[in-house]
Amino acid sequence: MDADNNTIYAETEMHSLAPTFQLYEISISCCGDVGSFPQFLYHQHDLRHVDLSSINLKGEFPNWLLENNTNLYELVLSNNSFLGPFQLPSLSHTALSQLDISKNSFYGNIPNEIGAKLPSLWFLNMSKNIFGGSIPVSIGDMNSLRTLDLSNNKLTGGLPEHLAMGCSLLSVLILSNNRLQGSMFSSNFNLINLRELQLDRNLFSGRIPDCLSNCTFLTTLDLSDNQLFGDIPRWMGNMSSLEEIVMANNHLEGPIPKEFCQLNLNLKLLDLSVNSISGSLPSCFSPLWISQVHLSRNKLQGPLTDAFRNSTILVTLDLSNNRLTRSIPNWIGRLSQLSYLLLNNNHFEGEIPVQLCKLGQLSLIDLSNNKLSGTIPPCLKITTLNDVSQEYVRYVAAVAQAPSSFSPDEPIEFTTKNISYSYKGRVLTLLSGIDLSCNKLTGEIPHEVKDFRKIIALNLSHNSLTGPIPPAVSELKQIESLDLSHNNLSGKIPSQLVGLTYLSSFSVAYNNLSGSTPERTAQFATFEEGSYLGNRFLCGPPLPNNCSTDGPSSLTPTASTDNGSIDMNVFYVSFVVSYVMVLLSIAIVLYINPYWRRAWFHHIEAGITSCYYFVEDNILPKRFHCGNM
């Protein structure tokens, strides 16, 4: 019986009516809100395959299904509303090979005898419940087990050594998001067939165990969000099958081993962010198929050199919050699929490379808090997934929904509205922004800014930009955060900005702007005085100084005083000019009139004689007198 993805309406109250049929298989997953358990199943005794997932079944675990159907080999009850403890059959069930009770509300401990009662399981998924206590040692008796998922529960204690020795065929082990602690594995380790290991979001401590070097088939390794310390093992570079390495949010230190260059053929995702990794990036490390690189919040230093030079399908490159130096390399223009470029909070210098203009898929660029100089390239392009081809949309969606359960959750930090937010998953496909703040950029804001039509955030603050605010900014109809503060911008604020209806954060503070503030309508009615501070010749609400009756144009930067203060530049120029004019006038008069010229020199000679006798009579005797003492 197969009714997947259909809606079933059935009366199940007549318990005494036994059906005249016996089913081998029943699958009614995703068939709406069935609620109560189908009663006719009580009379089935030869079921082999049962899939009752995603139909909102309630009540306790139906262990009678196992007791009544000794030939049942697959039972899927995931994504329902079961609650209570997980109950095993009274006798051992040797036929059951697949059990999935994930995404329910089962609680209590996992029964200690689960390995003895269900010895033939090769697939066991009990994730996303409320199980507590420790992992039963008897799971190590499941010699056929290949997939074990106990993630997203409240399990405590450590990993049973018997599990690591007995389940030698295990290829997928997922224990994420529990409260497991202690060392991950001891030297007694026999899980050499592992292909996917996810132990993230626990309390594991110690070093990365060397026994994992025996897992030569490992493709996915996630040890993030634990308390691991020590260096990244060099043997990890010899695991040529690795496609995804995620070890973020630990206490790892030391350099990225040069042996990682041996992963260039298969590696697709690397996340070592929020550790204490130091040293420079190996120049030979440039995986061909990597799509996501997250190395933020470490202590990496030195130039980028050729690292990632050949990673031409990179979608995300996050090297923010490190100590990287020198210029941003020109080869970055070769990364044609790059959507998210975060190099902020480093020590990069030089100009923004014009090669960035070749990145037609760029949605988010953050180069803030560096030492970049020069002008903003007018050819810079920023887009969103709404503007690119459907082929590229499918490509990014495939990256975000990769088979690994953690790929969509790799976060990206970006500052908007003066707050640093963490974005991840599908939200990233909608995010578009530029942050070039806290650099040494000069020149004018390019008029080509109008091409950033669907940008959400633009931050050019704390630079040395000059010239007017281009009216083209008013064409950024989707913008929510605009920060042009702490520059040398001049002229008036374009009145067209009031048309930016989504704008919720705005600042042009500490510039040389003049004229009146924008009309207090729509979003601009919410911006306070702090958005306009530090502009001497700016007037109008919410600033305390009102514009004059002659209009704001009467308040210009050429005024010599402001509230009684003196323009010192004008004062110095006027003083020097006046002094020179007086000296020239005296010289001309003395040259023309001989009588005044003789009188002038007579007075000068008399003054010199008077000074001479004054010094001789009053200063020299006292000096000799002090010397004799």
Task: Reconstruct the topology from this structure.
Elements: E1 25-27, E2 49-51, E3 58-59, H1 63-68, E4 74-76, E5 81-84, E6 98-100, E7 105-109, H2 114-117, E8 123-125, E9 130-132, E10 147-149, H3 161-166, E11 172-174, E12 181-182, E13 196-198, E14 203-206, E15 220-222, E16 227-231, E17 244-246, E18 251-254, E19 269-271, E20 276-279, E21 292-294, E22 299-302, E23 316-318, E24 323-326, E25 340-342, E26 347-351, E27 364-366, E28 371-374, H4 390-400, E29 412-416, E30 419-423, E31 433-435, E32 440-441, E33 457-459, E34 466-467, E35 481-483, E36 488-491, E37 505-507, E38 512-516, E39 537-539, E40 561-562, E41 565-566, H5 568-592, H6 594-618, H7 620-628
Parallel strand pairs: 1-2, 2-4, 3-5, 4-6, 5-7, 6-8, 7-9, 8-10, 10-11, 11-13, 12-14, 13-15, 14-16, 15-17, 16-18, 17-19, 18-20, 19-21, 20-22, 21-23, 22-24, 23-25, 24-26, 25-27, 26-28, 27-31, 28-32, 31-33, 33-35, 34-36, 35-37, 36-38, 38-39
Antiparallel strand pairs: 29-30, 40-41
What does this entry look like structurally?
InterPro entries: Leu-rich_rpt, Leu-rich_rpt_typical-subtyp, LRR_dom_sf, RLP_Defense_Trigger. Keywords: Cell membrane, Glycoprotein, Leucine-rich repeat, Membrane, Receptor, Repeat, Signal, Transmembrane, Transmembrane helix. Pfam families: LRR_1, LRR_8. It is a single-pass type I membrane protein. The chain crosses the membrane at residues 570-592. There is one protein chain. With 629 residues, the chain is an alpha/beta fold. It has a domain at 442-562: Leucine-rich repeat, LRR (right-handed beta-alpha superhelix) (Alpha-Beta Horseshoe). The chain is 14% helix and 22% strand. It contains 7 helices and 41 strands. It has a 19-stranded parallel beta sheet, with no helix packed on it. β29 and β30 form a beta hairpin. α5 (568-592) packs across α6. The chain is elongated and about 145 Å long. The model is unreliable at 1-15, 385-408, 551-565 and 623-629 (pLDDT under 50).
